[in-house]
Recover the amino acids of this structure.
């Protein structure tokens, strides 16, 4: 069986990178009943997020965990009881094979091992900061409106990393969404479970996918996000330092 995630090791253990939607891979024995061309669209994979995570991991010398299955098979960034865990429709496209999918079997095969891997990794080497890398479309294909943000910072209740991250990105001149294009208070499953529940500062970083669809864009954003990561590490360390 294919591993639930690609693991990139790094010497810098204070930051952990995650990428829930890095892959558009569909196992040979899972029939989604769709045109294979749909696997190249955002409904199947966060375009550019995987390459960006790998580049950022190399630049920071930080470990990263990248999921190895398409969200059309199962969305690892959803709770097991979420209605969209195994999508039957995504951005107007029907996924007829999922009408026949065994929900419990897919959770056991893909979802549970991925989250078990994350839990074990964080328990063994607790990071001081978790960054989850995603991308979003400039506009949904069906019924969407233009999304003006270049990047969004998503978070739930813990804003220790979010507030300085938003300030940093806006100071760089970037159009930055505060819990946009959607709210981390509604969709934050992985970080809720592995970061916030463990008291670890975290954010999800959503980069608009037309900005990271090629190597040049990935390189630019890898540089920006590495600077952000270093800034957050320093600000968090200052805030957690004991008073003298």
């Amino acid at each position: 069986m294919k591993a639930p995630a690609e693991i990139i090791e790094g010497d810098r253990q204070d930051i952990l990178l995650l990428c829930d939607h890095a892959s558009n891979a569909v196992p040979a024995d899972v029939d989604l009943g769709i045109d294979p061309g749909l696997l190249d669209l955002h409904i199947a994979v966060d375009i550019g997020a995987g390459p960006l995570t790998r580049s950022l991991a190399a630049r920071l010398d930080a470990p990263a965990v990248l999921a190895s299955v398409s969200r059309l098979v199962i969305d690892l960034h959803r709770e097991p009881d979420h209605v969209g865990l195994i999508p039957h429709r995504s951005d107007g496209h029907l996924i007829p094979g999922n009408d026949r999918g065994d929900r419990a079997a897919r959770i056991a095969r893909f979802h549970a091992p991925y989250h078990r891997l994350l839990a074990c990794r964080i328990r063994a080497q607790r990071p001081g900061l978790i960054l989850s890398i995603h991308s979003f479309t400039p506009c949904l294909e069906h019924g969407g409106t233009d999304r003006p943000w270049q990047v969004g910072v998503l978070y739930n209740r813990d804003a220790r990393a979010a507030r300085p991250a938003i300030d940093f990105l806006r100071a760089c001149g970037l159009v930055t969404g505060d819990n946009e294009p959607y709210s981390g208070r509604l969709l934050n499953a992985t970080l809720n479970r592995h970061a916030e529940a463990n008291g670890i500062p975290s954010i999800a970083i959503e980069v608009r996918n037309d900005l990271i669809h090629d190597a040049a864009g990935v390189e630019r954003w890898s540089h920006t996000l590495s600077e952000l990561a270093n800034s957050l590490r320093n600000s968090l360390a200052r805030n957690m330092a004991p008073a003298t």
